[in-house]
Amino acid sequence: MKMRKNAVVLSSGGIDSTTAMAMTRDQGFKIYSLSFDYGQRHRCELAAARRVADYLKVETHLVVCVDMTAIGGSALTADMKVPKGRGMAEMSSDIPITYVPGRNTIFLSYGLAWAEVVNASHIVIGVNAVDYSGYPDCRPEFIAAFQTMANLATKAAVQEGRRIQIDTPLIHMTKAQIIQTGAALGIDYGLTHSCYDPPGEGLACGRCDSCILRRKGFLEAGIEDPTRYVP
Fold first, then answer.
1. The domain 6-221: what is its CATH number?
2. What pLDDT score does 181 carry?
3. CA nearest neighbour of 120 among 167, 56, 65, 55
4. How far does Cα 217 stand from its chain's mean position?
């Protein structure tokens, strides 16, 4: 009987990471789900990540606390207004204020550490460079550079010959394609959370960049959006 490989999947409880996790599970991997409490204003995403982990029956769901509010520099971790009502051209014109300095580098580093411990050969991250390419740490060049570093910096690779692969299954997909893929795998997107500035009571603001991209994705996918937005 063929042994199933282990994969660490970074999970925010959003559409992208949830779809990436479902795709990884569908490929036969044992899933180790990793989320972060980093002081984000949309901390309710952690509840969504837990719901997704339970739904997909992962091996373990781990939440790591990393206080990035001490660094700030982002509308998600400091006292800055989250941009609202922007068009697609404006979103992609510059790196937005919702970019969190060093976030994916830090998250992947924790994923790398855990991958060594649980003997995972793959780290999966749901970055996407099509519908929203403003974040520099979502680019293929960054992922390739991190993978090179990972295989120079770990005992698993250097001594044991166990190379780590960083998987980005969504990187060239549109949001609509991502949603269609997840729906085909049976994902209930009502479990997920996307809003950067949730007003509470389980609602989404409907106007931040993330909400706008979510709405656009469901519309183009031809699938009903289960999100409860502010009226």
1. 3.40.50.620
2. 98
3. 167
4. 16
Burial class (CB in 10 A: 0-12, 13-18, 19+), 19: buried
Distance separating the N- and C-terminal Cα atoms of the chain: 53
The closest of 153, 124, 159, 165 to 16, measured between CA atoms, is: 124
pLDDT tens-digit series, residues 45-100: 999 999 999 999 999 999 999 999 999 999 999 999 999 988 887 877 788 899 99
For residue 214, give the DSSP letter. H
Q: How far apart are CA 78 and CA 68, in angstroms?
A: 9
Q: Which residues of 154-180 are buried (b: 16+ CB within 10 A; e: fewer)?
A: bebbeeeebebebbbbbbebbbbbbbb
Q: Is the pLDDT of residue 117 over 90?
A: yes
pLDDT at 6: 97
In this structure, what are the phi and psi dihedrals at residue 35, rounded to the nearest 5 degrees? -125, 165
Distance CA(70)–CA(16), nearest Å, equals 27
pLDDT digits (tens, 9 = 90+) for 157-197: 999 888 999 999 999 999 999 999 999 999 999 999 999 99
Confidence (pLDDT) at 143 = 96
Is 72 within 8 Å of 78 (Cβ atoms)? yes
Q: For residue 133, is pLDDT > 60?
A: no
DSSP state of 129: S
Question: What is the arithmetic mean of pLDDT over 114-135?
Answer: 88
> Where are the extended beta strands (E) located within the chain?
6-10, 30-37, 60-65, 120-124, 165-167
